[in-house]
Specification:
By secondary structure, this protein is mainly beta. The protein has one domain: Sulfite Oxidase, Chain A, domain 2. The protein contains four helices and 14 strands. A hairpin with a 2-residue loop joins β10 and β11. The relative contact order is 0.22.
């Protein structure tokens, strides 16, 4: 496996005032999941990039693990109003994965596909940021299944539902296709610093009916 690259500069999300409006600090990492945690086997696990690319790719665990590694410490902000600071993630930068597929100029958006059926929509520009990882480890340990093992996306500049767990593929498109929560009224972009939580028409109690919660790390 390639050596871990330690990030030397400070991500844009680590600002002097690190708690976005409406957020409360959480020392542990709660579990927010729609549906059951999938049972995954690294032997059959695959990760793909397809759509508006020159060369679609499908990596098995061995090929994914051979990609350059990065370590990024960043903050995670959930739309349900908790924030956990200084999360030490290790994994592969999305941009290094995308480079294998060579996105076309018209690829402006991505649908993140996950094992278990969850999807999230994202602009490709946000995914290409230096602190966006396909994470396999957190705080010096492998991810637990409830937190996305074997691979979860981490996008610090967006609310945490965009940091999808159990990632299986990225579909690059010219137009945005809303994901699971976006179709149900969550904001298309989800910037925590401007409180882009929901569209005004959404019942704020919605997420309480679909979240499976736990206090275990």
């Amino acid at each position: 496996m390639s050596a871990v690259e330690t990030k030397g500069d400070v991500p844009a999300t680590l600002r002097s005032g690190r708690l976005p409006p409406g957020q409360k600090l959480e020392s542990r990492l709660p579990v927010r999941t729609f549906g059951r945690t999938p049972e995954l086997d690294p032997g059959s696990w695959r990760l793909g990039v397809f759509g508006l690319v020159e060369e679609p790719v499908a990596l098995d665990w061995e090929r994914f693990s051979a990609l350059p590694r990065a370590a990024v410490t960043s903050d995670l902000h959930c739309v349900t109003q908790w924030s956990r600071l200084d999360n030490a993630w290790e994994g592969v930068r999305f941009r290094d994965l995308a480079a294998l597929a060579r996105p076309l100029a018209g690829a402006r958006f991505a649908t993140v596909h996950c094992y278990g059926g969850f999807t999230a929509s994202m602009d490709v520009e946000a995914l290409m940021a230096d602190d966006v990882l396909l994470a396999t480890r957190l705080d010096g340990r492998d991810l637990s299944p409830d937190h996305g093992w074997p691979v979860r996306l981490v996008v610090p500049s967006r609310y945490a539902w965009k940091s999808a767990k159990w990632v299986m593929g990225f579909e690059l498109t010219a137009e945005e296709t809303p994901g699971f929560y976006e179709r149900r009224g969550y904001h298309r972009r989800g910037d925590p610093w401007t409180e882009e939580r929901f569209w005004p028409e959404l019942d704020p109690a919605f997420y309480l009916t679909i979240a499976v919660c736990s206090d275990s790390l």
